[in-house]
Amino acid sequence: MPPPDPTSEPLPLRSPTLTLRGIDVFFGEKQALDSVDLDLYPREILALVGENAAGKSVLAKVLTGLCRPSAGTITVDGAQVTIGSPTAAHRLGIATVFQDLALADNLDVTGNIFFGRELHTSGVMRRGHMEAIAREKLTEIGAKIPSVRAPVVTLSGGQRQSVAIARAMLGDPRIIILDEPTAALSATQTAEVLDVIERLRDLGRSIVFISHDLDDVRAIADRVVVLRHGRVNGSAPVSGVTYEAIVAAITGITDALPGTGRGAVPRVVNG
After folding, report:
1. Secondary structure of residue 54 in the 3-state scheme
2. How many whole angstroms separate alpha carbon 243 and alpha carbon 222?
3. How are strands ordered across the β-sheet holding 18-27?
4. Any long-range contacts for 5-8 (C-beta under 8 Å, 24+ apart)?
5. Are the beta carbons of 63 and 72 closer than 8 angstroms?
6. What is the pLDDT of residue 269?
7. Dist CA 231 CA 261 (whole Å)
8. Residue 18, CA distances (Å) to 15, 126, 154, 162, 256 in order
9. Whose CA is closest to 110, among 157, 153, 147?
10. What is the CATH number of domain 1-93+176-271?
């Protein structure tokens, strides 16, 4: 008999990959994050939602090493860590795809995936090897890209997002933070990107999915965490909370999602 699959267990019975406790961030006298608690589990899509200036992007920058918290602790695989720079985040297996994507329109798909990390042997760029790896990464995430030699400027918004995600996968990260990956995309392009995100989960990654689109959140996320004015205003399994309840927590009509405490990690019932 094969051993049981640990990913079939309810999330709280598994150890979190990433834990935040009491995270504060100040910009001068303005507090951007206030005592934020968060857990991210293996093979989980965790949606992070909230109004503009709720603290979502600041939290992403904390995890990326672009912003140091004023207080609180960050734990990865049970060990307390300091994420003092993007390099430190990379070493911890954390990758981020920000909303602007930072792609170079004058380069092709391979050039963008390897931008700043080109492969050389004796001073000669290994273009063929880079193209092979680019194809492998794009295939791995199920991206629909016509050619790794296609100029990025010719790609759709959804395809460009896939290229940025494939670039993030070069370092084989375990935790991937996606900042508004479906913003300004058509319905078809959005569906393609959501498929890629689900594929990342199937590959064993843990994903923080920052989004304003609650339909997208309800389509693929396992849990949702609401931020409001820099504080966690509820955490719940997506399957156990309504669209209206999420909106109420986002807008402050309620002070938590139904059945959860502020920042609580609820039991997930499979099936």
Report:
1. coil
2. 14
3. 30-40, 18-27, 71-76, 79-81
4. 6/42, 7/42, 7/43, 8/270
5. no
6. 32
7. 12
8. 9, 36, 37, 24, 22
9. 147
10. 3.40.50.300
> Are the beta carbons of 43 and 18 closer than 8 angstroms?
no
225-226-232-237 Cα dihedral, nearest 10 degrees: -30
- pLDDT, residue 100, reads 87
CA atoms lying within 13 Å on the CB side of residue 230: 15
| Spatial CA neighbour of 117 closest among 84, 174, 65, 166 | 166
The structural domains of the chain, with segments of one domain joined by +, span: 1-93+176-271, 108-172
Counting Cβ atoms within 10 Å, is residue 262 exposed (0-12), middle (13-18) or buried (19+)?
middle
**3 pLDDT tier (thresholds 50, 70, 90):** very low
**What is the biggest distance separating any 2 CA atoms in the chain, rounded to whole angstroms?**
63
* Torsion sign, CA atoms 126, 127, 133, 136: negative
Tell me the C-alpha to C-alpha distance, in Å, between residue 154 and each of 31, 158, 185: 41, 12, 15
Return the pLDDT at 260. 55
Amino acid symbol at 239: S
Length of the chain as a residue count: 271
Read off the pLDDT of residues 64-96 as tens digits, 9 standing for 90 and up: 999 999 999 999 999 999 999 999 999 999 999
Instruction: Give the DSSP per-residue string, 213-250.
Output: -HHHHHHH-SEEEEEETTEEEEEEEGGGS-HHHHHHHH
The first and second tokens of residue 48, run together, are: 């992070």
